[in-house]
Design the sequence.
């Protein structure tokens, strides 16, 4: 996977570039938050997860979401491995200790011969969407 440019400059006054890991995170978030049809050249790209969390949480089928994630990530086959993708529907506590509907995504990756899993959590609270991510060493 290549690196992407960022809008801005580094501390040395040169164009800032995202690392391969940062580029992958941005691309996966684009898939998760994007709406199918938003990119005319890739009409099937996007999963629109916020809509699922806000409107259809009880109807979410984890296996269907997992298959859709695998299909959308096929464009990144050079860094996204064929390992154990996983999608978990759960509830997490927000900053006020209220349980909020959430979905966790596990994406197995290999960047520069290092295997790690990208874990992304997306949750909905009071019609607001929040997300966070972390790397899990294998």
Sequence:
């Amino acid at each position: 996977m290549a690196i992407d440019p960022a809008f801005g400059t580094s501390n040395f006054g040169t164009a800032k570039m995202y690392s391969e890991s940062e580029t992958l995170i941005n691309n996966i978030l684009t898939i998760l938050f994007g709406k199918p049809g938003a990119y005319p050249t890739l009409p099937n790209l996007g999963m629109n997860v916020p809509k699922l969390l806000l409107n259809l949480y009880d109807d979410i089928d984890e296996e269907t979401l997992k298959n859709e994630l695998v299909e959308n990530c096929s464009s990144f086959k050079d860094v996204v491995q064929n390992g154990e993708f996983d999608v978990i529907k759960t509830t997490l506590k927000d900053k006020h200790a209220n349980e909020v509907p959430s979905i966790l995504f596990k994406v197995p990756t290999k960047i520069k011969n290092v295997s790690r899993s990208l874990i992304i959590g997306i949750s909905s609270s009071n019609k607001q969407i929040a997300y966070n991510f972390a790397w899990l060493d294998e």
User: Anything to note?
Assistant: The first strand starts at residue 5 and ends at 9. The chain has a mean pLDDT of 86.
